[in-house]
Write a structure and sequence with these properties.
- It is a single chain.
- This protein is α/β, with parallel strands linked by helices and about 280 residues long.
- It has nine helices and 15 strands.
Length: about 280
């Protein structure tokens, strides 16, 4: 095992690589507001990804944390002032525009459980993040297809990629280790693609993993390397959310926008609409 893999490994007690691992979010009725709705909020974090999933009973799940420390301020707008615990956070992959906000969020909140792919990646920000995970007391898990997240005894979020444990492995493109998940919230199905690109999309289609969904969180900020036609034909989303800000990469690319429009998919962009909120009773 490489030196970097050993750092990511953290400890055998923290990383669980079971074939079928289930994270159960314990639902406490105490203090629950009867009229509190579940919601997923795609946060306007600029050029990056960050989403907050809220469940009744002050239960929260974070998926990525954007490119800056301002992420803590963003989520504080939606969390009760007295709630300083977050039940679960998922890092889809270690690029700075997804991981940077966690450096502050881990200090401002107690994140009880943390799920990540754990592939080899060498950057100062990611190194600092791994060190912080060691000291802040989160339980850390290696994500893999088949893992599921349950709330109130009901599976609501399923990991569908990576297809194998990525912990300690090296990838030609770190995007190939992206944690992809499907969220079932109320009567809507969301597909959260992280920065997965066309080769991952094709693998998911060919394995019959992709089924009809309602909302697609578009992969890689609308890059032309994602949202292939074969993938959109399989997923058949009605709506697409592009998490994007001012950038020099050409995101979202005109090819991706045309693909989405070709299949009649309604497009929402965080750089135009701000925070994008889906609520469900």
């Amino acid at each position: 095992m490489s030196k970097w893999a050993k750092m990511v490994y953290i400890s055998r007690k923290l990383i669980l690589g079971a074939l079928l691992f289930v994270v159960v979010l314990v639902y406490w009725a105490v203090g629950q507001k009867e009229n509190q709705s579940a919601a997923v909020i795609f946060l306007n974090v600029g050029q990056g990804d960050g989403a907050l999933i809220e469940l009744p009973g002050d239960i929260q799940i974070l998926v990525d944390a954007g490119p800056s420390a301002d992420f803590s301020n963003k989520i504080s707008q939606y969390l009760p002032f007295y709630d300083r615990e977050i039940e679960l956070a998922i890092l889809t992959h270690p690029h700075a525009d997804h991981v940077s906000g966690f450096l502050q969020a881990l200090k401002d909140y107690h994140i009880k459980n943390f799920m990540l792919a754990g592939a080899n990646y060498n950057s100062k920000i990611y190194t600092d993040f791994i060190k912080l995970l060691k000291t802040e007391g989160s339980r850390v898990y290696a994500a893999k297809s088949g893992d599921s997240i349950s709330w109130n005894n009901t599976p609501i979020l399923k990991i569908i990629w990576p297809d194998k444990i990525a912990l300690g492995r090296s990838f030609k493109s770190i995007h190939d280790s992206t944690v992809v998940s499907q969220l079932n919230l109320g009567n809507k199905k969301f597909l959260l693609m992280g920065d997965a690109e066309a080769n991952v999309e094709t693998a998911l289609v060919e394995s019959n993993t992709i089924t009809d969904i309602d909302v697609l969180k578009v992969g890689h900020h609308g890059s032309k390397t994602s949202s292939s036609e074969i993938f959109l034909q399989a997923a058949q989303p009605e709506e697409a959310v592009i998490s994007v800000g001012q950038n020099s990469y050409g995101h979202p690319h005109q090819i991706t926008l045309r693909n989405l429009e070709k299949y009649g998919i309604k497009i929402f962009r965080t750089d135009q609409a701000g925070d994008i909120i889906y609520s469900a009773k």
